[in-house]
Design a protein that fits this description.
With about 260 residues, the chain is of the alpha/beta class. It has helices at about 1-5, 35-45, 45-55, 85-90, 115-125, 140-145, 170-175, 195-205, 210-225; strands spanning about 10-15, 20-25, 60, 105-110, 130-140, 155-160, 230-235, 235-240. It contains nine helices and eight strands. This is Solute-binding protein family 5 domain-containing protein.
Length: about 260
């Protein structure tokens, strides 16, 4: 992109398409079935390194919905690296006394090599609080296959996901409803009937303000459960011939739906 940007008439545009990078934590498999264990990992992760060094230009995610999506909550709780808080949470976990007996397995997508950098950083960060991590490179089709059952799903699966229509409700449905368990969009295995009811109620609410208020409540409910590491909202950068191409996304007029900016 740097070389392309030097060509006369060519510009590089960066925009946020409504894509978030998640670490989906299996909430029904030891040791990630323990909420304090999950929160300890959330506090131990170095998000700053991820967005400044590994995926520069991206921003740390705030909850389960990218901030460019209508209905995203700009004030939902956001974790940051704090080892003291991580240790406090870990001490409340039922696994704290025998951490050496448990291995957290992270499967990253072989077709997206940059994911390995995040996985290795995660492994290093978790070692700082005594959590052992195994990083595994897995082809995409194998990831889909293993997430088809609760037993074969690993502790953590990495995923980029985007909205299917431009509202927070799209990702809340496709990522966290019980119907999405056993698919590539949910390794968390939440199976939370209360959450299902909240999501169903929100997406059928006609009034926009009321619907968005319900989205906010759902985002905070999910964040409180800490089923996922919300790592970053992805920035996309593309070179284009600015002298004759009028590209709305380059002006900031982004359609936050998967694949719609081309």
């Amino acid at each position: 992109l740097t070389a392309l940007d030097k060509i006369e008439g060519v510009d590089v545009a960066g925009y946020f398409p409504g894509t978030e990078f998640y670490y989906m934590m299996h909430t029904k498999k030891p040791p990630t079935d323990d909420i304090h264990f999950r929160k300890a990992m959330a506090w131990a992760m170095d998000y700053k390194i991820v967005v400044e060094k590994l995926f520069p230009g991206s921003i740390q995610s705030r909850g389960p919905v990218p901030q460019t999506l209508p209905g995203a909550d700009p004030r939902v709780f956001q974790y940051y690296r704090n080892l003291d808080k991580a240790i406090l949470e870990l001490k409340q976990s039922k696994y704290y006394a025998e951490l050496d007996k448990y291995l957290v397995t992270v499967h990253w997508c072989a077709e997206v090599p940059d994911e390995e950098k995040v996985a290795l950083l995660f492994m290093s960060n978790m070692a700082d609080i005594g959590i052992n991590v195994k990083v595994v490179k897995v082809p995409w089709m194998s990831m889909i296959e293993e997430m088809a059952t609760m037993e074969t799903s690993p502790n953590i699966v990495t995923i980029f996901d985007s909205a299917h229509y431009p509202e927070a409700g799209s990702l809340l449905e496709s990522r966290y409803k019980s119907e999405s368990a056993a698919t590539w969009e949910q390794n968390e295995w939440l199976l939370d009937t209360e959450l299902d009811t909240m999501i169903n109620d929100s997406v059928k609410t006609i009034d926009r303000g009321e619907r968005f208020a319900k989205y906010v409540e759902i985002q905070r409910y999910i964040t409180d459960l800490c089923p996922t590491l919300f790592l970053f909202d992805q920035v996309e950068k593309h070179a284009y011939h600015a002298t004759y191409v009028d590209w709305p996304a380059a002006r900031g007029e982004v359609i936050p739906v998967m694949g719609y900016n081309f």
